[in-house]
Amino acid sequence: MIKGDKPKVWPQWIAAAIVYILSMLTGLVAGWTSPYLAKLTTGSETLTITNDEGSWIASLFHLSRPIGSIIGAVTVHKFGTKHTVFIAGFPFGIAWIFFLIRESVPWIYASRVSSGVAMGLYLGAFPLYIGEIGNPKIRGALVGLVSYGSAIGYLMGNLLGAYISMRNFSIINLVLSIFFLVSFLYFPSTAHYFVKKNNMDEAEKSLKWYNRQRDVAIELESLKMYIGKPQKLTLKESFKQWTTPLNRKTLFMVICVYLFMQLSGLYTIAMYLEILLTKLKIDVIAPSLVVVAIGIVAIIGGCVAIYTNDHCGRRTMLAASTLGVSINFALIGVNYLLAGHGYDLDNYQWYIIAEFMAYIFFLNIGLTHIPNCLLSEIFSPELKEIGTCIVNIVCACSAFLASKSYQPLLDATSEEFIFFFYAFLVFLMFLYTIIVIPETKGKSLQEIQDMLMKRDKTVEPVQIYRTTND
């Protein structure tokens, strides 16, 4: 490296800022449901739906996420993470076009399916893209910034949904989708992709672009050692790699994190916030405005996370997040229990609102993005595509199960049962985090793989399917 030719990280921040727009679109998909489901089920919009149709609208996009995850794994392998992130913008745009065609339940269903495909593509590619371009010192912050876009989108969905029609909401989202596609088109593919394709000249250019260095020989050599000799594995051979103890344990660890996250109802509750507040007879301010205020708290939590990801560490923040969410779920459950037994909670409305705000804050300082951090850095290079695909399929299926079962579970039990049950699951995730999850703060991708090998007593050198020599 030329003396004084230090890497500059601002191109990485710009790339993350553009992907942030795509993250905003995912937040808008989630934030859309709270105000509009309340309107659609009460007849406040031109279209009126049943509770069962509302349940399908809330959960249907999770059902199509595996399709996006599978497409994402194929496109990441064929075209790289950058192009896959770019492709994810198209189904988001198509989803909002469906809304403009006709305001009816079938077209809303179609829109949610398209959004789900987009979500699967996005979640399967963006963590890998950030992991490949990100400097180890800021990789967690970059993931935090992108995830922060989801909180902004969620707030925008709540805020705009309270005051504008679904048609105008769709137009705004369509414009954002087009803006993302135009902005991200000219970014180069990552050096990881070119090294895998044995195109070292383009890999060098990519490293120079994302790091703004004249001499990247050391970085390129390090990347070649990390990725190893490019190998064309068949699908059977790729799956066979997951039979090794290290890879199997790594996959199981990440899957468990996502299973806990989705089955604990963390995002399901967010979809029904306005309805939940209304059932607690919150009237000190309008429930729709409380939802907006909660969205602002989510943004504050996201800002905190950008700093704490790389300063406090992934495991620490995930533990703090899960413990905080668990406690607040339990407190909210107590409110419903008291209300169900006839207690007057009118004088405690601000406490109840504060509990919902605390839940969103703790959710956004860890749970919304730390799993993506792990996904961006935990898998070995030859297994990233298929590993991310498997994780996202499991995540999507569990998210669909959690969101679709919410209304039937509520009908069969009560709000307090649901919150106590979710609080228990999130607390289990807290215990799992402090016992199992490794700390990856500040480590390069190669250092993370070395750490995992040392933690796993059963691993042998022959089990790492990478060679650097012919």
Automatic annotation (TrEMBL):
What GO MF terms are annotated? transmembrane transporter activity
Pfam families noted in UniProt: Sugar_tr
What GO CC annotations are associated with the protein? plasma membrane
Q: Which residues form the Major facilitator superfamily (MFS) profile domain?
A: 15-441
Q: Can you say where in the cell this protein is located? A: Cell membrane
Superkingdom of this entry's organism? Eukaryota
Transmembrane domains' residue ranges: 12-34, 83-101, 107-130, 142-164, 170-187, 250-273, 285-306, 318-338, 350-374, 418-437
Is S-adenosyl-L-methionine there in the keyword field? no
Q: Cell membrane among the record's keywords? A: yes
Q: How does it sit in the membrane?
A: Multi-pass membrane protein
Q: Which UniProt keywords apply?
A: Cell membrane, Membrane, Sugar transport, Transmembrane, Transmembrane helix, Transport
Its recorded name reads Facilitated trehalose transporter Tret1
Q: Which organism is it from?
A: Fopius arisanus
Give the gene symbol: Tret1_20
